Amino acid sequence: MSQAEPSKKPGVTPLQVSQDERNEYGGVSMEKVKQVLKALDMNVFIVPHEQEKMSG
């Protein structure tokens, strides 16, 4: 997918896509994640699981 494709979606600019690709944000909110996924016509599934215990 090119950078121009997501920016054709309403409310998404090429600058935002570029910043997202370079991770130029201090932190990402769930709202931002939802906006990006919506622009890409994608969903995300979060599956909780127990943390692996570190040996040492």
UniProtKB/TrEMBL annotation:
Name this protein carries in UniProt: Uncharacterized protein
UniProt GO molecular function: DNA binding
InterPro entries, per database record: Lambda_DNA-bd_dom_sf (IPR010982)
Span list, region Disordered: 1-26
